[in-house]
Amino acid sequence: MANQLLEGEDNIQLHAMIENIERMCLSIDERKKGLIFYDVEMMIESSMDYSAYFEHDNGKRVYKLDVDRELNKIKAFIFEKVKELGSQRRFSKFI
């Protein structure tokens, strides 16, 4: 939905933030198989354990808490942009 609202540089920035999370959590093989940002979110939401982590082929671990921080940055970015867009629009009362 934010993709429809944002234009230009904001949309590019949003996609870069999403791609960063995908690279952070998913290996190249997983991305080739078609796993995407949505899959990362579902994995995060399905595990209540904050010590859960994603492990890459090179042994690097990315913990759920780290991913949550990045997701919160995206949410804050979207809310900021929506608030900015909303302040530019004027609503009138129809009688």
Give a verbal description of the structure.
By secondary structure, this protein is mostly helical. It has one domain (2-86). The chain contains five helices and two strands; from the N terminus they run ααααββα. The protein has helices spanning 2-5, 9-25, 28-32, 37-46, 64-88; strands spanning 53-55, 61-63. The protein has a two-stranded antiparallel sheet with strand order 1-2. The longest helix has 25 residues, at 64-88. The radius of gyration is 17 Å and the shape is elongated. It starts with a helix and ends in a 7-residue tail after the last helix.
In short:
The chain is mostly helical. Helices cover about 65% and strands about 5% of the residues.
The order of strands across the largest sheet is 1-2
Task: Give me the count of strands.
Answer: 2
Largest sheet: 2 strands, antiparallel
Query: How widely separated are the two ends?
Result: 31 Å
Radius of gyration: 17 Å
Number of domain modules: 1
Helix fraction by DSSP (H/I, runs of at least 4) = 55-70%
Mean pLDDT: 82
Shape: elongated
Number of helices: 5
Classification by helices and strands: mainly alpha
Taking pLDDT < 50 over at least 5 consecutive residues as the criterion, the unreliable ranges are none
What is the percentage of strand-forming residues?
Answer: 5-15%
Order of helices and strands: HHHHEEH
